[in-house]
Every structure is written in structure tokens, then in C-alpha cells.
Please model this.
Amino acid sequence: MSTEKHHDIYKTITKPSEETLFKDKNSKFFGYAFPVNSEEEVKEILSDLKKQHHQARHWCYAYQIGTETKQYRANDDGEPNNSAGMPIYGQILSFDVTNVLVVVVRYFGGVKLGVSGLINAYKTGAQMALENAEIIEKTIDKHFIVKFDYKNMNKVMRVIKEKNINLVNQKMELDCEIEISIRKKNAEEIFNIFESLFEISIKEKETL
Model:
């Protein structure tokens, strides 16, 4: 197996992890990892967790979204600067995952942990959450819209079959339109095949 890293592969998690618990000096740190694709999802998950843990003191988190261009945010939620959000984000980087939100919920146990104690606790909480998550590799895919007349359907379908292309959506009427997704490194080759076919148009789908 080659260890060469393909630039069109990324790692993410498949589903929310099971809750983990780390304790230090009576403080409890509950760790969670969630797959996310937008800030809206992050807000919804945080709001659900705040209801679930309404007596907790802090809901600290970090997330990273995106494949080729990534955006991230780390939030200390009232803990000393960089003692919570950044240690959590550090674990997201360490596990090399994206499209993921990691939240560590703290119940204060009456004894202060100090900044180094907090950094360790949030880092450990995040690490446990990610260890508990199912991490998978996915390819970065580009989506294209192919348009053609019904009479050219066989030509198009032959390419899709031969090249084993993933069909996302199809609208088969007099004017046909299909959406396909192609792994980034093969995208140019497939695009050129369709573009060279008579009476068939292909364009990249606009991403939101």
C-alpha cells in the first residue's frame, strides 16, 4: 500500500461519537464529536447540548469545516484565554479531521484546576471524544451538470458506466439533465470526454 498522500482525500467522522467523561479534581468534562458541514449545524448542536447539560458551567468547543479551504473556530466559553478552545482545536488537527465539531462540557467541581490543568483536561476531553468517533477517509469530489437530448441518452450512459461515475441526480425528459460527482483527480479527464461528445453540454455545478 502506498503511503503517498493524495491531495483529494480528507478525513472526517461518520456520525456523532458516544459521550466520553474525563474527571479531574471533582470537575467533570463530557466530550462529544459531531460531523458538521455548516455554522448553522454547529449552533443547533450547541443549543441542544446546552439544554441537555443546562447545569454545566462551560460548553467549550472547536470546529473545522471545509476540505480544500478550511475554516475553524475555537471558543473558550468563559474559561481563561486559550485554555479550552485551542486545546480542543489542537486535537482536531492532531487527528487530521475536518467537517467536525468537538465540544467539551464542564461541570465545575469546586476546585480550581489552574490554566495548565484546564488545558490538559480540555485536550484530554477532545482526544477521548475523537478516539470514540468513527473516522473515515473521503475523496474530494467535483459535481457537474450534463445536459443532452433524450436521443443522446445512450452515449452519456455508456460513459457513466465505463468510467464508473457516480450519478447524483437525474431528470430524464425530452431535455435530460443529470448531476454527476467525480473524484477531483479524475475530474478533468471525465469533463473532456463529455465535452467532446456531440450535442452534449457539461458544466461544473456551482457550490453554495
The CA atoms of residues 23 and 29 lie 6 Å apart.
